[in-house]
Hints:
Layout (H helix, E strand, L loop, with lengths): L1 H26 L4 E5 L5 E3 L3 E8 L4 E8 L2 E11 L3 E5 L7 E10 L6 E3 L4 E4 L4 E5 L6 E7 L2 E4 L11 E2 L5 H7 L2 E2 L1 H6 L5 E2 L3 H10 L11 E3 L3 H5 L12 E5 L4 E5 L2 E9 L5 E8 L5 E7 L9 E2 L4
Amino acid sequence: MNKIYIIETFILVLFIILITSCKKESNEIQECNVIFPNGGEWLLKGQEYNIKWFDQHADFVRIELYKSDLKVKTIVNSTNNSGEYLWNIPVNLNDGNDYKIKIVNVEDNDISDESNSLFTIIIPNETSTFIDSRDGQTYKIVKIGNQWWMAENFNYETDSGSMCYLYEQNFCEERGRLYTWEAAFNNSPDGWHLPSDEEWKSLELFLGLPPDDIDKEGFRGEYVGSLLWYGGGTGFEVLPSGYYNAMFDLFGHIGYETRFWTSTNVQNEEKFWSRLLIIDHRGIDRHKMDASFGVSVRYIKETEK
């Protein structure tokens, strides 16, 4: 009996030790953690960005910049461990998509962290403006790769098939109109057209979407969507403009999402490919949508021949 009791007691003690150690391990907080830039971002030369990190112990930290795993410079040798440092990116840095930030505890160099994956530093994309001769509205445009895109949502009032969010004019002025597919396809200004699914794919590949993911439905890419949002670095400058559901005469999700038409119909279906961006996901969604929906439009410039 005593032997059995001793064995049972030993097993119980061992079980308690294992549980306790697991709890400790699961509750451990990494001593230093880079938050931004942490991979996938496009940062522009000459612009200011808040480098963000978390370090639970340091009084001071050092911030270093690496390119292709080689140290380029020390951004700041010692700064208060406030969790943020305003960095003006020098214009003389080389362009590249292989940068990382490293945060180092000044009191203990063994405590450090770097960006999880690479980010890009470039000069801003070329921009210009376009005037729609039909109503005199001026639109910002941006060249990304070899494509010229409208850098704000279209806002031409069509005879039918377009509307302001909640039918309120101020939303049109701030975020453009919402269009059914037919209205979007048939009302492009001279020299511009509704981009095809393939033209959207070209943009996504240029921004780093893995080729193996390009034809998938749903969200793709770890960060491509975030590059298209306002302030994302590409100049595309998406604002969350919501949508209109004609079946229920229902508006929804302004401040949370934006959808864009493509000109491409889904084979053997009465639907069209579209793109979706939501504020709490860094990817970009490719999905089928009924032509009666009202969503935002970004036209692409005709290729010069």
